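**User:** Once you have settled down, spend some time on the protein underneath, comparing sequence with structure tokens, and judge whether sequence predicts the tokens.
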Amino acid sequence: MTENILETIRKGVQDFVAPEVRQLRADFGGLGAKFDGLRAEFDAFRSEVRANQQALMAALENAVLRGEMGTQREISELRERVTRIEDQLRTPRQ
């Protein structure tokens, strides 16, 4: 008789708990799918940020190079002017 009571209690607990466990498993499965979706979105966002960062760095490097080229051009022009002035100072005035 004790076994019958224990079996009845066990069955009652299983009848009550089993649907809840199934629901929890379904909920966890749904959360896993949502997590995977969020991970994919995050990975896409991270890739986009990296691409934008690389483009920005390339643009900055180009701007720096253009600035250096402009500076080199200005230095060259200044050298030419100094050479002309030195030439004018060396030649006697009439």
In short: The two ends are 138 Å apart (CA to CA).
